[in-house]
Amino acid sequence: MNSIRYKDALYKPREISNIKDLVNSSAVLFSDKDAFLVKDKPGGAYRAISYGQLKEDIDSLGAALMELGLAGGKVALIGENRYEWAISYLAVINGVGVIVPIDRELGADEIGDIFKRASVDAVIYSSKCEGAIDEACALANVGMLISMDAAEHTESRKSLTKIISRGKTLIAVGRHAYLDAEIDCDSMCSLLFTSGTTGLSKGVMLSHKNLAANVYNMSKYVNVTGFTGLSVLPMHHTYEMTCHIMTAIFQGCRVAICEGLKYIVKNMAESKASVILAVPLIFENMHKKVWKNAESKGKAGKMRKAIMLSKLVGGQNIKSTKRLFKEVHQAMGGEMKLMIAGGAPIDPLVIEDFNAMGVCTIQGYGMTENSPIIAVNKDRYSKPAAAGLPMPGTLVEIIDKDENGIGEIICKGDSVMLGYYDDPEETARVIVDGWLHTGDYGYMDNEGFLFVTGRKKNIIVTKNGKNISPEELEYYLYKIPYIEEVIVWGKDDSNTGDIIICADIFPNYEYINETHGIRLNDAQLKRIIKEELDRVNEKLPLYKRVKRFALRDEEFEKTTTKKIKRFTVEH
């Protein structure tokens, strides 16, 4: 349902003071509901865990961790998405100390570096990461190792299961230090080392106030009460942990743990998922598969007409839409109601098509430094190309605007981080008079919607002062079906003395082979891509045209949220 009559409408969630309050109040409100759906073995059936069990496990783990001497300490957390990950995060921040979530795809050297930089006292980890953890601990002194999978304590490491069991005993005999622990809402509770696209990670310090404000205010725009969410993105990322896990617990939504990216469709059907948060790449791939399936069955023309009709009459407002696009809904498990894109810009056409097919699809915008959401579209009032409306309680301004009204996005509010860990100079550079300088460029339309045009540090500036957003040009190049991945960059031209636009391209070899029936040689491949580039260039002003390009044999290196690491691309 997308209607201007909801322009000023807000949902009215209950107020919360911190994340401990969030968990405790939800355990009372939703005591008879399922909080999580988990699998005890790969490929097995989902098993439900209630809100009551969730609170008991969090409290028991917290109580035992305090007995182990970790009160006020820093606990690193690393592993794949799983129930144990979520309760470990919540148990630590809700009365023990500071959680340090770590990307499980990092190498041992990087993990060890974070252990040292954060002065970690203990690490809770999955057995899948045990090798890297052992190597990292050889580089940094960590006092305690806790395995999510070990059945028993050993001399070198402890069992999370046994620790939780011990905590239950402690609470049963009246040891309530954890239950009674006071939460300092303004102190650091989470220390996140960003796995960014632009270089060395920085430690982002977030408080209960930061996180609770983000969950509470986001819930005024998007309602998932009674939904089932499929947890796809890595939980160490604030987008997944704040916007999905904590918001789901706050609103009474149950969370199904996805077994991995290649199992998304299967797990959607098994869990009857009705909401999913993901990066654009996942939704764009789903979109491509929908159209590829329609084309293979000779139904693409019919589907285009149906989408046009649906857009004319209001898309997901019409009950018959789901019947009209029955095959699409079945491919998503049959229950999908809401899809939220974040982490990078998404092609608005993908949003438009899914909305027309009866699946409400919106996007949001944020960064770890703002816990993370800055703006998000309402589930009842949205614009496909917009990053969204500034969240309630978040002020957003555009500064240093150019002639088109585009400038740097800055924001202010309770979700702005405390600062960068052990880095006051960088903190002072990014937070000025309470305003977080995002480093992103964008503009706001006359209805208050925020549009993000690119990263400030990625902007290409020509000698005559023209600003070129590589993300804008990449958007157009991604329209070329022969291109799978692309990075646009600027290079000094010794002949003209100015900047010329270049592109590094990873071709869509699967599509090329299917289309041409043969594997093209390098010369043929360059020729057809140049022809397509020329067509794109014809629609662009001279200074924005891609003048040179190179093809690559391998995909670009990416973060775990599937964003290309620009700083690793050699020009």
Task: Note the main attributes of this structure.
globular, 23% strand, Rossmann fold, GMP Synthetase, Chain A, domain 3, 571 residues, 5-stranded parallel beta sheet, alpha/beta, 9-stranded mixed beta sheet
Structure description:
- The structure is a single chain.
- Among the domains are: 16-39 and 46-183, Rossmann fold; 459-568, ANL, C-terminal domain (GMP Synthetase, Chain A, domain 3, 2-Layer Sandwich).
- It has 18 helices and 27 strands.
- The strands form 6 sheets. It has a 9-stranded mixed beta sheet with strand order 2-1-11-10-12-13-14-15-16, with helices on both faces.
- Strand 3, helix 3 and strand 4 form a beta-alpha-beta unit.
- Helix 2 (51-67) packs across helix 3, helix 7 crosses helix 8 and helix 11 (300-313) packs across helix 14 (348-356).
- The longest helix has 17 residues, at 51-67.
